[in-house]
Write a structure and sequence with these properties.
The protein has about 240 residues and is α/β, with parallel strands linked by helices. The chain is built from nine helices and twelve strands. The longest helix is centred in the N-terminal third of the chain and has 14 residues.
């Protein structure tokens, strides 16, 4: 099964100076390509915090995405943080230097920060993004600028692909407490699906939306049928 974890890096997100656009985009796109997202975290611009979170996510999921902190300024710490997560040295990568020079960039103390990558880095070149995607073990390092992040993710999206998710819904005017036992019983019968219960307090004709989700469409359909048979006062969601 394809699984992922996402690490959003930046004080500007935690302080509220900028709203996070990358997390919502990756949540949606990972689901669309059939990858189960296991964790999403936002961490500050701190080497130990980045290293700790990357290490945790790398052990949890088959693939990890980081966003942010890859520019030339003092607060861009992601590459060093990823290196620290795996106890790897940073090395000046000749291919990155070559690319930067071909774009007319001068290699100085600031720009060199973007060319010093963890030892063993694999560059994924090609696609729409001019700068290659940096891969360190199972970690894919993407920029924080939303437009650039989206372009880079789309270049590697196929690496996250898995079997499609199938979802069915049942809505009811009953309270969640009235159907909790039914949900528990049906979940016990269909272990291959996930059943979720989501109360709503808007001005709508239903009080709870129940979702059935799984990779096997037949199991999803069968679990939905069981819920439709047992849940009273169904309404259109």
């Amino acid at each position: 099964m394809s699984t992922a974890a996402v690490v959003i890096i930046g004080d500007e997100i935690l302080s509220g100076k900028f709203a996070d656009e990358n997390g919502p985009y990756l949540i949606r796109r990972l689901r669309e390509v059939g990858c189960r997202l296991l964790r999403i975290a936002v961490v500050r611009d701190d080497l130990d915090a980045i290293a700790e979170e990357v290490r945790r996510c790398s052990a949890l999921a088959s693939r990890v995405i980081t966003t942010g902190g890859v520019g030339p300024t003092h607060d861009d710490m992601t590459l060093e943080g990823v290196a620290r997560a795996f106890d790897l040295p940073l090395e000046l990568h000749p291919r990155v230097v070559e690319l930067m020079q071909s774009w007319g960039m001068q290699i100085d103390a600031s720009t060199e920060r973007m060319a010093r990558l963890p030892a063993g880095t694999v560059l994924l070149e090609g696609g729409e993004a001019r700068f290659p995607v940096v891969r360190v073990r199972n970690v894919f390092v993407l920029p924080g600028v939303p437009r650039l992040m989206r372009r880079k993710f789309e270049d590697i999206a196929e690496l996250f692909a898995g079997d499609a998710f199938h979802v069915a819904r049942v809505a009811t005017a009953r309270h969640e407490t009235d159907i909790a036992g039914i949900l528990t019983a049906v979940q016990g019968r269909f272990s291959g699906v996930g059943i979720g219960s989501y109360p709503r307090y808007d001005d709508v004709p239903f009080r709870v939306i129940v979702t059935v989700e799984g990779r096997d469409p037949d199991q999803v359909e069968a679990a939905q049928a069981a819920l439709l048979e047992l849940i009273p006062d169904q309404v259109e969601p």
